[in-house]
What does this fold into?
Amino acid sequence: MVRLLILIVSLLGLLALPGIASGDESQALRGTYSNLCIHPDTGDLLGIELSFVSEAEGGYVLVQRYEGGPIVPELMKIKSRGDRIVLAVGDSDSIALQRTGGGVRATYLDGQQSRLGTAVENLISSLPVWQGKKPALCR
It folds into this structure.
């Protein structure tokens, strides 16, 4: 009986450690990741910013896309899909995330394309433009 009680208390203790017991990578992703830049010839803003804004209910990310200028931002929910982190709007998976060193690789699942015409964006840790960061020139 004592062993059973110790086992139950241990399991409850593991559940209280979000991201450690479940292997949820989203717990380590905080702040903003971006590849936003200014086109040197046109001055257009191009790229995307992902700002991890809440850990409530598994977490939320403010997704700000730029296609010449800012597009209306979307608040997406963080969902686990096996060993992947996915950002979803409602029941639709939109972006898959994978940590890469100090950054994040974002793969579009909804048909969007990067400024380079691919489904993949490589993002680095950054301050968001909405907090005053000046974007670099596109290369």
